Amino acid sequence: MSKNSKLMIKTLNGNIVENSTRPLWLMRQAGRYLPEYHETRKKAGSFLNLCYNPKLATEVSLQPIRRFDFDASIVFSDILVIPDALGQKVDFIEGFGPLLETIDSIEDLNKLIPSNLDNFINKLTPVYETIDNLKSKLPKKTALIGFAGAPWTIITYMLLGKSKQDLNICLNKIKNDKQFTKKIFDLLIYTISEHLIMQIKAGSEAIQIFDSWAGFLQGDDYVKYSLNPIKKIIKNVRLIYPDIPIIGFQKSYNEKINNKQILSFLIDSGIDCISLEESVDKEYILNNLPKNKVIQGCLSVETLKTGINLEKKIIEILDLFKNVPHIFNLGHGIDKNTPIENVEFLVKTVREYK
Questions:
Q1: Which 3 state secondary structure label does DSSP give 249?
Q2: Which of 59, 84, 261, 334 fits a 20 to 30 Å CA distance from 118?
Q3: Are 27 and 333 contacting, i.e. CB atoms less than 8 angstroms apart?
Q4: pLDDT band at 2 (very low <50, low <70, confident <90, very high)
């Protein structure tokens, strides 16, 4: 079976596949809601060890495919392998999340800039080995997705050290220190581009770029620090792989979402597919959707977890997007407390939808 015959890739190329079910996968589908994940995680010893162990990362990536037969597998990794591979100290604390040694000055940043790209790529080679493993182990119909974080989101972690910090501190720093800002964005645009290119070279058939904290930025700040850097990354990737489908994901901030910004991201960044969260104005996006652009999403994570009105919400989304290229997914990553039977019900409902 060639790449182009895979339902996920056909849809990402802007096609509505007649007489076929809607392609389906879930963000964070390989992870903590699965008991088999916890067993594998114990063997690794730490989260980063798991990301950098091709054998175990392959196993974790395959677990949701074996259970649910999703139409796509996403390589098990993390957006913070980028600062880690650059030499910034990154830890993942159980029950807390990522913790980074913060970057405070241009001197700190200069220590991270690689003398050559080889050291950076060598550190990330296990990720590419995992992709190569998955290429031969996945079912022939299952597409393989690589991914990376966007510069703005990665910068928030690099400067603030952890998630859920005051992003105003980060924004003030990059607005008021132009030399620092140019250097860190140039570094991340370059290294993220290379990381994505290497994932495609290893066998990824599509890529997704996560800008999870883009919703914090508004107006010119959004264009300068989120949209334009992503445009540059996509341009770099397309110079080498002009036909690779690219999915973009941006999240709201404090439940606020700018629907015009989301549409601008879809139209202006160069992505093929926009991954929507549940709070977006779906009708607005649908009514302004350019031809051949693709929608991914947007079932509520909470709805899947609780199961309340689950069938009704799934059918609403399937009905709403039945006349455009659409990939069924969640509005964000699956919650660790989601019952497996709810995911089974989701898969059954999407598969049986006519």
A1: strand
A2: 59
A3: yes
A4: very low
The first and second tokens of residue 118, run together, are 């080889």
Angle, CA of 150, 7 and 61, to the nearest 5°: 55
Higher pLDDT, 146 or 279: 146
Mean pLDDT (whole number) for 66-80? 98
H/E stretch holding 210 reads strand 206-211
For residue 130, give the H/E element and its range.
helix 117-137
pLDDT band at 254 (very low <50, low <70, confident <90, very high): low
State the pTM of this model. 0.96
Structure tokens at 340: 């497996």
pLDDT for res 253: 73
Spatial distance between the Cα atoms of 159 and 105, rounded to a whole number of angstroms: 9
Q: What is the pLDDT, as a whole number, of residue 95?
A: 75
Which CA distances in Å does 94 have to 12, 17, 25, 162, 174? 36, 42, 26, 13, 30
* Bridge partner list, 211: 250
Residue 348: is its pLDDT beyond 60?
A: yes
Residue whose structure tokens are 């300068």: 224
At which residue do the structure tokens 């960044």 appear? 269
> Which pLDDT tens digit goes with each residue over 331-340?
999 999 999 9
Angle among Cα 188, 192, 198 to the nearest 5 degrees reads: 150
Q: How far apart are the C-alpha atoms of 178 and 106, rounded to whole Å? A: 11
What element of type H or E holds 206? strand 206-211
Own/partner pairs, 97-102, CB within 8 angstroms, 24+ separation: 97/162, 97/163, 98/157, 98/162, 98/163, 99/161, 99/162, 100/157, 100/158, 100/161, 100/162, 101/161, 102/158, 102/159, 102/160, 102/161
Q: In the predicted model, what is the mean pLDDT of the chain?
A: 94
- Give me the architecture of the 3-352 domain, per CATH: Alpha-Beta Barrel (3.20)
Helix axes 178-202, 167-176, angle to 10 degrees: 110
Residue reference for tokens 């063997």: 43
Displacement of CA 190 from its chain's centroid (Å): 18
